[in-house]
Design a protein that fits this description.
Helix content: 25-40%
Distance between the termini: 8 Å
Oligomer: single chain
Structural class: alpha/beta
Protein name: Flavodoxin
Number of strands: 6
Function: Low-potential electron donor to a number of redox enzymes.
Keywords: Electron transport, Flavoprotein, FMN, Transport
GO molecular function: electron transfer activity; FMN binding; oxidoreductase activity, acting on NAD(P)H
Order of helices and strands: EHEEHEHEEH
Strand content: 15-25%
Shape: globular
Radius of gyration: 13 Å
Cofactor: FMN
Amino acid sequence: MKTAVVYWSGTGNTEMMAQEVLQGMKDQGAEAEMIEVSSFQAEQMGDYDAIAFGCPSMGDEELEDTEFAPVFEACESALSGKKIGLFGSYGWGDGEWMRNWEAKCREDGANLVQDGVICNEEPDDEAKEACQELGRALAQ
């Protein structure tokens, strides 16, 4: 199984989460790679059996809008039927951005393997384990 973790990170917290998701994928025996969103193109969606997208909450609980959101929006037409996982960190709010993002993915027909993984600021051991679980679920 070929999987990818596509992410954007401002402070490094979401990148740490991405590394844990990647580890979970590899633990399941998947061929897995971690890709910064600036190096990912919508045309690559078909290259992967499952993709984890990671982006922190920005502004008024929304996806980072300069790099991440434009790439994700370009990928939306390829989400239907695709195994997808979502994750990201936040510094304020209650996770509304993740609920909105999950709803958008469901509207697009994505197969969300589980609820998105969120953590406040730097991921603790519980958040790291949740990220690994997400990676394992995507690689099954």
